[in-house]
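Q: Given only this backbone (84 positions), what sequence would you predict?
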């Protein structure tokens, strides 16, 4: 059984969800979704997304890769994770 290789062009998201001081880009790949978040300095979930989402914490599952800067992720029932 072979494995198909798919490429994604990061300058062409299928959907963009803007929010204050950032945006979330969605890419669809064969029944799966890949998301890329771009945050500007000073961005905070609690200030810039929580009011839109109606939830104090992000409850979505994540695989994180931080390319530049720092990222702190509080999650329900866990200590905040820090990524650099």
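A: Predicted residues:
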């Amino acid at each position: 059984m072979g494995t198909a290789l798919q490429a994604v062009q990061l300058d062409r998201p299928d959907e963009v969800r803007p929010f204050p001081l950032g945006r979330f880009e969605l890419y669809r790949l064969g029944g799966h979704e890949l998301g890329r978040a771009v945050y500007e300095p000073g961005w905070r979930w609690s200030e810039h997304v929580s009011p839109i989402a109606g939830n104090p914490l992000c409850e979505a599952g994540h695989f994180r890769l931080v390319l530049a800067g720092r990222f702190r992720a509080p999650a329900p029932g866990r200590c905040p994770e820090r990524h650099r």
